[in-house]
Amino acid sequence: MKATNTSSELLSSKPQNPTLLSRFMGSMRPADWLFKQTTMLFALAIAGLVVLIIYEMVRNSQLTFEKFGFTFLTETVWDPVREQFGALPFIYGTVISSILALLIAVPISLGVAIFLVEHAPVKLAQPISFVVQLLAAIPSVVYGLWAIFVLAPLLRDNIYPLIQSTLGFLPIFQGNINGLGLLTAGIILSIMIVPIITAVTTDVMRAVPNTQREASFALGATKWEATQMILQNAKSGITGAVILGLGRAVGETMAVTMVIGNRPKISASLFDPSFTIASAIANEFTEATSEIYRHALVELGLILFIITFLINASARLLVYAATRRQGGAAHG
Length: 332
Description:
With 332 residues, this protein is mainly alpha-helical. The chain has helices spanning 2-12, 20-25, 30-59, 62-68, 71-74, 88-119, 122-136, 140-167, 182-207, 210-218, 223-233, 235-251, 254-259, 277-284, 291-331; strands at residues 78-79, 84-85.
């Protein structure tokens, strides 16, 4: 009788009005709700910071936007005295030096990673991995000094003359050799990004389960065929590592400034001096005495930001496409 009365009381009772705090929290406990809101605040702060950076760069590029418009990207003349500004030589130097760095660094990085993960004994792999990670932490100015006093003279006196004597019929290997230029910048950039690509690729390959290697060997695969299978499964992560290295190469400033020659001119020869966007900003911002000069340099920074954004967006698309193909193959 008592239980019947209790049930009828519960059925007849009206739901209580939720408080304002309970409406926000829902069914979450207060600590969980507070943790969620805090992490969301951090994420929104990063997004807001990016928006603020873009806004400031656009606002401080207004003069060159109005005077040059789209021709700022296509003009090749950079003459601050006559207030003529064209970004094409800097875009050319940035893109070519980064591509050269990737062409040199990616095969070396993959080779080192494959050796460390698949072939090297543990006693040898651990110290080499430590040294590779240590190289990634060296400041860029140290690389720049080493490039000026060691790398550039070595290339100028021994390597470049040999290349020009054998491949000099190609326009990219013609011209005067002075040790400072696009190719030297690409080489020093490749040395700087090899540790990053190698470290990430090594971690990605080690993340592939050993059962896949054992299954390959059980089916009669050779060591090379098993390695190919590991590389195929780690393809999306390796792509991310390469794009990470490319991002550093595009934005690298100090070391490139010290060896690229700093001349805003487009030349087919890789031996000729050039300029990158980051180097131009670092070199000339303190010398920008006029308002439009400063706006031109800020617009260069905006272009560098857009190039970096496009690189990262392309990387996302590549990883997404690779993951989707792997998923489709697995389900097929």
